[in-house]
């Protein structure tokens, strides 16, 4: 459903990705791991239309989407949960969710009600400004906002970063329920154990290149360690 072919990305003169090939099948969960600065966020930005310097290197259902703006990518069913959440701070929880529903694909399953069923605390806090929420609750809003577009593919950037273990557990518990709707996911995650537990396949990036890929059931801890730290 999604492919990148020789994907490169740059910030001015600085090259961040050097020919990345990844695929995501319908309904699949793919984890992207790698150390700080490996290029994980840049990869997600290149898919989601935030970065647009790879016109023919990102394909969605066979169509090049690398030149599309973020809202056009969203309309095709690819939604991003960005690093740092990027909520509208002065708007309420419910208003943030409704903004996510403004680009909406068909009559899919995600509505305010189903997002509140997934994260019941958000219903209790629905009239609170986003800034009044804890970090974990804000992350739930960011996920809910992305779901409100009824995505086929959800791109999640570091959804556990900076959160307490108990909150991370709650957020990760929601992922299988999102997958039950048939959505595919790409998860960027610093916590390798968590990434391997949740994903079907993994790609490890180092310095803008893929150093390992495989099914999470078939790759060894040693191989992941070598690919992550570059001591293969
Ligand atoms: P992290 O876990 O720290 O977010 P990452 O794997 O997501 O790391 P990226 O954020 O994609 O890595 O960064 C890849 C490289 O691109 C890094 O060397 C980073 O310094 C550089 N980079 C990222 N964003 C910019 C930017 N806006 N301008 C210039 N360089 C950038």
Automatic annotation (TrEMBL):
Official protein name in the record: ABC transporter ATP-binding protein
GO terms (BP aspect): L-amino acid transport
InterPro entries: AAA+_ATPase, ABC_transporter-like_ATP-bd, ABC_transporter-like_CS, BCAA_Transport_ATP-bd_LivF, P-loop_NTPase
Keyword match Cytoplasm: no
GO MF annotations in UniProt: ATP binding; ATP hydrolysis activity; branched-chain amino acid transmembrane transporter activity
Alphabetical list of CDD domains matching this protein: ABC_TM1139_LivF_branched
SMART domains registered for this protein in UniProt: AAA
Pfam families tied to this protein: ABC_tran
The ABC transporter domain, residue ranges: 2-232
Keyword annotations: Amino-acid transport, ATP-binding, Nucleotide-binding, Transport
The family this protein is said to belong to: Belongs to the ABC transporter superfamily.
Organism of this sequence: Tabrizicola piscis
């Amino acid at each position: 459903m999604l492919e990148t072919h020789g994907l490169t990305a740059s910030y001015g003169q600085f090259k961040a990705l050097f020919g990345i090939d990844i695929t995501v099948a319908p309904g699949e969960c793919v984890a992207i791991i790698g150390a700080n600065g490996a290029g994980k966020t840049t990869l997600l930005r290149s898919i989601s239309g935030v970065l647009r310097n790879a016109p023919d290197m990102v394909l969605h259902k066979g169509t090049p989407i690398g030149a599309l703006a973020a809202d056009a990518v969203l309309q095709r069913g690819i939604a991003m949960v960005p690093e740092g959440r990027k909520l509208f701070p002065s708007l309420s929880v419910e208003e943030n969710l409704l903004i996510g529903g403004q680009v909406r694909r068909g009559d899919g399953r995600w509505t305010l009600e189903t997002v509140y069923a997934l994260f019941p605390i958000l219903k209790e806090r629905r009239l609170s400004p986003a800034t009044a929420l804890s970090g974990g609750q804000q992350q739930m809003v960011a996920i809910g906002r992305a779901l409100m577009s009824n995505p086929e593919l959800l791109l999640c950037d570091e959804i556990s970063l900076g959160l307490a273990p108990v909150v991370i557990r709650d957020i990760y518990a929601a992922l299988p329920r999102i997958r039950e709707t048939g959505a595919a996911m790409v998860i960027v995650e610093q916590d390798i154990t968590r990434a391997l537990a949740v994903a079907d396949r993994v790609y490890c990036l180092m310095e803008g290149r893929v150093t390992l890929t495989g099914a999470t059931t078939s790759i060894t801890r040693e191989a992941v360690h070598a690919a992550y730290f570059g001591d293969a």
